[in-house]
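TICKET: design request
STATUS: open
ATTACHED STRUCTURE:
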């Protein structure tokens, strides 16, 4: 898992290697400084204690050690600052690459892949989870080598002064290590739960904001409010629990530190007075305090570092899951780029949305559509109409059998080439924020203003667009909120027409358009795109009545194929739908 994540370090590899080196340099400098200090104080002490008045301070020694101290201090400062800067750069760059890699992989997801994740969870993975891993990474490259070196070197230096003190520090380090580790061990599960609660919070906010109009029209603000309260309340509860433990940690660290200092003082003074065997003299006391602080901070850093890494493990797993997800639409060897014509063939097709599902959504589909034909598809809701047509531009692959476009298995095409030839106006379609013209250019980014107007005219959209303030430059707002349902459908049709596809599929795309406009759009299609295969899914018989062939779908199977007249004669389901609609009309 770690290796997979580290692949995203890329151009920040050098920085990531230099940082630990600089941190080690900083640690060594910090260890040497107290040692030099002792040397200078020792020199002064020698003179002070001497009874001989001829003995004077050896200034050369003092200046040499002083100069070395300045060099070490400046060295530590430079190594520390540059190291911190590079660590920030490396970790931010790593996070940036990680997000980019996740996003790039997300773009390769098929519809089936997308079905596996909730939007909220994907957002948390790309934002919060990456931030967690970024923090852990920064901590690791800064501390994971520096802290143990600081710890070990301080112990060794202490050994030179007095082995007993080194033993004392080591004992204190073990105690502190256990305290910090227990605290972190208890905190980590709370943090982990907290991140899950963040996921839930994201989900509530996202759902509420995207469906805010429904919430308002059903007067469910209170319900949404209570959902939000619960979500934020959960995050609050777990943060407080975690913080409560963390508040114990710092005072415990200080306590251990003070106890160690008292012991150093007691032991040290007794050694100086000769009560205990030992080689500590008063000049070394200050140095010992500094080493004890370094030993303990080293231990604390290692313990915290390990725990933060453990904490980010959950996040790392969730990130790797996205990085590892492979599209369910594997690339073919052939990568055919040319779609010959708009013919469509289904041979023995069966289809399930997930491998686990035991009931197939589509069964035994054999269907042959000639290029340029107009096909109507009708059937009750949930019968499998959308599923059937989604196999043509390869939004999903069939579980069994083959789907051919232009006489070639859709799996052999280059996916972009196939989808550029098959325009599908989805049942749940969306527009993007931006102007009308910008939205229509999704169909063809190089389309001229004239071509855009032509497409809009064919989709019976030009008239209403002209009336919008600013016409084609009218801003649609997020998701196209500024236009009516029927207007949105017509914009989506115009966008699809601009692709000049070989096959065009309307999935219930004129349901919000009045019958007259619906008929005009169909006649325009016949007139301006005679060679394009037109597949029209509709609930209204009137929308499919004049098609070359009408397909009746029932419970995932083809119940009948024929013209309007043939089906009226031979197909019971079709007859029933027709009668209910005609009667409804008469009434
Ligand atoms: N993404 C999906 N994941 C799992 N099952 C799905 C998915 N989409 C649709 N289904 C199921 O597949 C079946 C057929 O759905 P489909 O959308 O093809 O029906 P439809 O004929 O287009 O209905 P409608 O007229 O309401 O649009 C339904 O039982 C539905 O629950
Ligand atoms: Mg549908």
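STATUS: resolved
RESOLUTION: sequence designed for all positions
ATTACHED SEQUENCE:
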């Amino acid at each position: 898992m770690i290796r997979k994540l580290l692949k995203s370090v890329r151009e920040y590899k050098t920085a990531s290697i230099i940082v630990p080196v600089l941190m080690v340099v900083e640690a060594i400098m910090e260890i040497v400084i107290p040692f030099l200090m002792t040397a200078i104080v020792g020199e002064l002490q020698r003179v002070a204690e001497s009874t001989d008045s001829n003995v004077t301070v050896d200034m050369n020694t003092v200046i040499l050690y002083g100069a070395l101290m300045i060099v070490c201090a400046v060295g530590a400062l430079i190594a520390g600052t540059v190291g911190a800067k590079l660590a920030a750069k490396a970790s931010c760059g790593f996070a940036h690459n990680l997000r980019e890699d996740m996003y790039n992989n997300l773009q390769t997801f098929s519809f089936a892949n997308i079905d596996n994740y909730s939007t909220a969870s994907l957002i948390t993975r790309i934002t919060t989870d990456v931030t967690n891993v970024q923090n852990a990474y920064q901590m690791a490259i800064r501390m994971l080598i520096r802290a143990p070196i600081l710890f070990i070197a301080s112990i060794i230096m202490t050994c030179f002064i007095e082995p007993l003190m080194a033993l004392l520090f080591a004992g204190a380090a073990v105690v502190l290590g256990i305290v910090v580790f227990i605290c972190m061990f208890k905190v980590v599960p709370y943090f982990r739960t907290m991140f899950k609660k963040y996921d839930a919070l994201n989900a509530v906010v996202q759902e509420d904001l995207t469906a805010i109009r429904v919430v308002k029209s059903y007067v469910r603000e209170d319900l949404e409010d209570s959902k939000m309260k619960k979500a934020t309340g959960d995050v609050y509860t777990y943060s407080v629990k975690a913080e409560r433990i963390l508040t114990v940690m710092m005072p415990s660290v200080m306590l251990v530190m003070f106890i160690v200092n008292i012991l150093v003082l007691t032991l040290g003074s007794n050694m100086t007075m000769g009560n205990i065997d030992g080689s500590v003299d008063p000049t070394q006391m200050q140095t010992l305090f500094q080493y004890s602080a370094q030993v303990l901070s080293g231990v604390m850093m290692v313990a915290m570092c390990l725990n933060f890494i453990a904490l980010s493990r959950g996040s790392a797993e969730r990130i790797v899951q996205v990085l590892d997800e492979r599209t369910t639409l594997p690339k073919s060897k052939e990568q055919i780029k040319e779609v010959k014509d708009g013919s469509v063939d289904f041979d023995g097709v069966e289809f399930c949305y997930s491998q686990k599902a035991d009931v197939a959504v589509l069964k035994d589909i054999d269907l042959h559509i000639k290029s340029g034909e107009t096909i109507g598809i009708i059937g009750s809701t949930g019968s499998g109409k959308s599923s059937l047509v989604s196999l043509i531009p390869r939004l999903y692959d069939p579980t069994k059998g083959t789907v051919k476009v232009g006489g070639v298995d859709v799996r052999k095409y280059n996916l972009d080439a196939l989808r550029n030839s098959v325009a599908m106006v989805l049942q749940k379609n969306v527009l993007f924020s931006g102007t009308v013209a910008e939205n229509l250019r999704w169909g063809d980014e190089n389309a001229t203003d004239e071509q855009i107007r032509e497409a809009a005219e064919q989709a019976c959209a030009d008239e209403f667009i002209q009336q919008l303030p600013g016409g084609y430059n009218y801003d649609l707002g997020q998701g196209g909120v500024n236009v009516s349902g029927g207007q949105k459908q017509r914009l989506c049709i115009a966008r699809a027409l601009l692709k000049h596809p070989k096959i065009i599929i309307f999935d219930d795309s004129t349901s919000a358009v009045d019958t007259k406009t619906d008929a005009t759009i169909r006649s325009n299609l016949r007139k301006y795109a005679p060679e394009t295969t037109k597949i029209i899914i509709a609930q209204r018989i009137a929308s499919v009545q004049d098609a070359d062939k009408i397909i009746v779908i029932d419970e995932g199977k083809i119940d009948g194929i024929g013209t309007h007249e043939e089906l009226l004669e031979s197909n019971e389901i079709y007859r029933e739908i027709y009668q209910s609609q005609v009667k409804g009309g008469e009434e």
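CLOSING REMARK: The two ends are 67 Å apart (CA to CA). The chain is about 65% helix and 10% strand.
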